[in-house]
Amino acid sequence: MIIRKPTLIAAAFCGIFASSSVLAKITADEAARLGNDLTPIGAEKAANKDGSIPAWTGGITTPPASYKPGMHHPDPYADDKILFTIDKSNVAEYKDYLSPGQIELFNTYPDTFKMNIYPTRRSASYPQFVYDATKKYATTAELVEGGNGIKNTAVGVPFPIPKDGLEAIWNHLLRFRGLSIERSGGQAAPTASGSYNYVGFDEQLLVEYSSPEATPEKLQESNILFKFKQKVTEPARLAGTALLVHETMDQILTPRQAWTYNSGQRRVRRAPNVAYDAPGTAADSLRTTDDFDMFNGSPNRYNWTLKGKQELYIPYNSYKLHSDKLSYDDILQAGHINPEHVRYEKHRVWVVEANLKEGTRHIYKKRVFYIDEDSWQVHVTDIYDNRDQMYRVAMAHGLNYYEVPTHWSTLEVYHDLNSRRYLAIGLDNQEKMYDFSKSFNDNEFTSSALRREGR
């Protein structure tokens, strides 16, 4: 098979490349491309040259006929067959479509790690009001000084035609995931032998930024992007531990606000350290706080560079992995999750490199994010330590929650190459499904509510 080496398109692919710290806003002519040769949120609408990535035709616009609210989502592509499989024997043939971290997984687990490649389905879609807001504010959205916040935008993708890496990562941070979401699930960190303990969570998310009624003025006044609450439900020794986060729009004006409830002490405490490289909740130190959702929080400790675009094999349309027909034992095994349940497809991704600023600290010196052009979801992250060695590799297994619709991960997997362990977070096969129809109010996201949740 002849492999066409992908082109790493310059960051100027959509227009102006910004080399200064002051970025030019999207022009009216550039914004006019949204919904024409670009999708409503800025992806290339056309197929790639060889047709292995098809044209975007709107994504999934209606749920399958068999779907009913509350179900684990039936696979609309269940009849697709595997095109080919990449394993250690042929990985060199496909290296141009793999990240360095993905290649390292083949080297680390040569006998067991593989990638089943399926036809590419550009299924990502969002509500029309998200598309409308993206176009409406495309020419006004801008970063606050230093890039540690955002202004003059609401609801949609703030920078559908990004001029630098900071704008691209803010698109990931603010991508549409629904309005009020309640979800149950958990995580597991298998040992080298494959044994694991399940940690259960109940989570609630209220996204003020994405509300159809949101305006730049209202968001500036409240300075809140979203509110997030998490409670540990099992095992018994951790049950009742809870976390509350208020994520701010301008983090210079007001940094992230966080509180924790410790079930042993029975008290709520402010938690300013719930950020950056603080260890994630009950994660055996296999992820940092800002790893959650592939990246979250303030970007101010890194210099961000938009490297361009490339074609990459990424986890996508992961309905099989999401199925309630699977148990956690079916998915979790030593070294990595069971590759028989994982679907990979070729997609165009934005490549964003984050390098630690001089004078700041983080256990990660460099991170390279591969962001799906159709959804602004980070699907793969390569993470380097302070010796410039590959340290961790993270992959988000996404699908279209078509009742919303939104493209979001069903499972995130963080591979630690040094310990040869991984953390799988978002396990929900044996739990009730995400509920995007919940209606929350602000008083459910206060420190008093956190205390009640913990008890």
UniProtKB/TrEMBL annotation:
**Which superkingdom is the protein from?**
Bacteria
Recorded hits in InterPro entries, A to Z, give: DUF1329
Keywords for this entry?
A: Signal
> Which first-to-last residue range defines the signal peptide?
1-24
Q: Determine if Signal is one of this entry's keywords.
A: yes
- Keyword Chloroplast carried by entry: no
Indicate what this protein is called per its UniProt record.
Answer: DUF1329 domain-containing protein
What species is given as this protein's source? Answer: Pseudoalteromonas gelatinilytica
Q: What is the lineage of its organism?
A: Bacteria, Pseudomonadati, Pseudomonadota, Gammaproteobacteria, Alteromonadales
